[in-house]
Write a structure and sequence with these properties.
Blueprint: H1 15-27, H2 32-44
């Protein structure tokens, strides 16, 4: 995921997921640490790795 894109603004979330991420990050809720881990892992990936389906 590109560094300039905020996690909640990534195109692969649906509206409910986007709202959840924004709220959790803003509230520094219990889930915020896990959200930060997810953000770091997504940014660590150079490119999404897709399996080819036969």
């Amino acid at each position: 995921m590109a560094g300039a894109i905020r996690l909640a603004d990534a195109l692969f979330w649906n509206a409910a997921q986007t709202q959840f991420l924004r709220e959790e990050i803003a509230d520094d809720a219990d889930w915020a640490e896990l959200v930060d881990r997810l953000d770091n892992r997504l940014r660590a990936c150079d490119e999404p790795k897709l399996r080819s389906v036969p």
